[in-house]
Amino acid sequence: MSTTLITGARLLDAAGAREGWLLLDGDRIASIGGVRPGETADSAAVMDALPSADTVLDFAGRTVTPGFIDLHGHGGGGAAYDNGADEIAAALAVHRAHGTTRSVISLVANPLEHVQASLALVAELAAADPTIVGSHLEGPFLAIGRRGAHAPEFLREPDAATIEALLESGGGAIRQVTIAPELPGALDAVRQFAEGGVVVAVGHTEADEHAARAAFDAGASLVTHIFNAMPGIHHRDPGPIVAGFDDERVTLELVLDGVHVHPSVAQMTFRAAPHRVALVTDAMAAAGGDDGYYRLGSLNVDVRGGIAHLAGTSTIAGSTLTQDAALRCAITVAGVDEAAAVEALTATPARVLGRSHEWGMLAPNFAADLVVLDAEWNVERVWAAGHVVEAAE
Q1: Same fold yes or no, 3-65+360-390 and 67-352
Q2: How far apart are the C-alpha atoms of 256 and 377, rounded to whole Å?
């Protein structure tokens, strides 16, 4: 395996920034050096300490972060994750070019046999490709009144036999499931999935505060795209949003495209739940593509001005977001601290997935997942599992 030394860049992760260098060896970070703001060091000594490498790259004036991790996305580049291996590969290529180095493949509500086939396919792909983390069942256990872009005829109440069939089809690669906790049998479903090693999220729900808290006590530890597809905050009826804010065990997914959530609300979320925000794309096939007509599962989607709606309605149908755009929106529009914004794309989703020991930080023995960004937070180069990915134009 070849080694690559990155020099001259500002290295930024959840712990903050440092000026220094970073050595990659195959698919791992071998070593890292440099000083953080406020520290002092002899620059000559720092240069003398540079390790040798097969390739040396100077990224002066750039910022290097860990690779982005997306817990929730449905496609991109005109391709949808529900539509087979070729479309999964095409969509992932778009998101890789925008800095996402590890992806959870989210599936919308479909006929059960279709969902089971998709789960089996994702398990097979994840076994061969380390950048595919596994699958996310966003349906079918959703509230019909908060279904968003999920076909109502495929929604159902959870039962033990269906869950067991889904877990078996997923082959141990189901990473996340979204459940409306007010449905009959939902709390038992939360426990069954959690015992099966699946991260359970509260979402697409009519739940009040008490139902949401009961789900968290049963093992749910995530909220699917907080503020969206759930009751809002009322001063006499706080609902699932406040329940999620209050519970330190719970991570909050946030779609930060300037459409799903106002930037001021996003800033409030980062302040109210430090280290517990995970920026996700919820991207559908139009991400990285043009306006026009698309499909999301079995439903028609109309994309205008980069905003996706179910055709003929005002219902938002996922996003056209990439994670580099979410980072720019967080820092330059919402005013989120840069380290906190990067953390929400890296260390926090890594923790949700139980991979905080190897993903999401710039540190020795962590994965060689890197994003090189210019002064305007545009992606210039990406490494995913040690392999260079061409950045998007």
Answers
A1: no
A2: 15
Phi-psi region of 71 (alpha: psi -120 to 50; beta: other; left: phi over 0): alpha
Q: Mean of the pLDDT values across residues 126-147?
A: 97
- Residue in the structure block whose two tokens are 């980069």: 306
pLDDT given at position 45: 47
* Marked catalytic residue, from 25, 282, 324, 369: 282
Rounded Cα gap, residues 359 and 346, in angstroms: 7
Is 58 a known active-site residue?
no
CATH of domain 67-352: 3.20.20.140
Nearest CA-CA partner of 109 in 85, 137, 69: 137
Which residues have C-beta within 8 Å of that of residue 205, sequence separation ≥ 6? 142, 143, 146, 180, 181, 182, 211, 212, 229, 230, 231, 240
Q: What angle do CA 271, 356, 273 make, to 5 degrees?
A: 15
Which pTM value belongs to this model? 0.94
* The total number of residues written for the chain in this structure: 393
Given this model, what pLDDT does residue 384 score? 97
In the chain, the amino acid numbered 136 is H
CA distance 268 to 258: 14
* 215 contacts 193 by C-beta, under 8 angstroms: no
Q: Which residues contact 102 (CB under 8 A, 6 or more apart)?
A: 67, 68, 69, 70, 130, 131, 133, 359, 369, 384
- Residue 171 CB contacts under 8 Å (≥ 6 apart), including other chains: 119, 120, 123, 124
Domain residue extents for the chain: 3-65+360-390, 67-352
Are 364 and 30 within 8 A, CB to CB?
yes
In sequence order, what are the residues at sequence separation of 6 or more whose Cβ sits closer than 8 angstroms to the Cβ of residue 161?
A: none
Strand partners, 381: 372, 390
* Residue 190 pLDDT greater than 50, yes or no: yes
- Token duo for residue 258: 């300037």
CATH architecture of 3-65+360-390: Roll (2.30)
